[in-house]
Design a protein that fits this description.
Layout: H1 7-18, E1 22-27, H2 31-43, E2 47-52, H3 58-72, E3 77-80, H4 96-124, E4 127-132, H5 145-165, E5 170-177, H6 191-199, H7 209-220, E6 231-234
Parallel strand pairs: 1-2, 3-4, 4-5, 5-6
């Protein structure tokens, strides 16, 4: 699992381990946070390993995959959650380097990690791929054009993969949260904006990392045999408006 040292990634890693999966906790910089996720999983009786890799770099990703293969023999599931940095500003104030750079990095990371895990999945004729998107792909919010646009590209990328990889027994889906509490991106919301988001959410609260983790766990489970190319909107009903 990429981007698994904190927030949604750490919570999802813990849940998947609880359900019997061996979990790779990928991280970019925070080795102590990643090791804590691993320690918590192992303390609960699960199996996990922390591996450092910048998912935008093919060599780093290949090294990570080789470490996993050496330890556990293969890869059945990819959950791509790594948050690529982006500018938070209006389009009028944005440069092409900021918008185009985010698009390039977002798709490069998804392309790189997917390419790396596909050989094992296609060889065994079974695999599960889940990309973490965002409700901002379909529901714009001021200053979030770089994130929303790049994640919209990721969603369409996932649909094309779902079409191509389905005959090989590999499902590809997106989990697209609305605003999520207890994450780095949550700090982008000021109190007034947060109250507007709450008012637009029929379930009366913002998502927690565990809500997103549950959706991911469903998609990657063996019971999910006939859903691919879909997007799970984890937003408490906000997308109905």
């Amino acid at each position: 699992m990429t981007g698994a040292s904190s927030g949604i990634g750490a919570t999802t890693a813990g849940l998947l381990a609880e359900r019997g999966m061996r979990v790779v906790v990928d991280y970019l910089r925070s080795s102590s946070a990643a090791e804590k996720v691993v320690a918590d999983i192992e303390a609960a009786g699960g199996r996990a390993m922390a591996v450092q890799a910048d998912v935008r770099e093919a060599a780093a990703v290949e090294s990570m995959v080789e470490q996993v293969k050496a330890a556990w023999g293969g890869i059945d599931v990819l959950v791509h959650n790594a948050l690529i940095p982006y500018a938070i500003k209006s389009f009028q104030d944005m440069t092409w380097e900021e918008l185009g750079g985010k698009l390039n990095d977002e798709m490069r990371a998804a392309f790189t990690v997917t390419k790396a895990v596909l050989p094992a999945m296609t060889e065994q004729g079974w695999g599960r791929i889940v990309y973490i998107g965002t409700g901002l792909s379909r529901r714009p919010r001021e200053y979030m054009i770089a994130l929303g646009t790049s994640k919209a590209a990721l969603e369409q990328f996932a649909r094309y993969l779902a079409q191509e990889l389905g005959p090989q027994g590999i499902t590809v889906n997106i989990v697209a949260p609305g605003p999520v509490e207890d994450t780095r991106i949550a700090d982008v919301l000021d109190d007034a904006h947060r109250q507007r988001q709450l008012a637009a959410t029929p379930l009366g609260r913002l998502a927690h990392p565990a809500d997103v983790a549950q959706a991911v766990a469903f998609y990657v489970g063996e019971d999910n045999t006939f859903m691919t190319g879909t997007t799970a909107a984890v937003n408490g009903g906000m997308s109905m408006y």
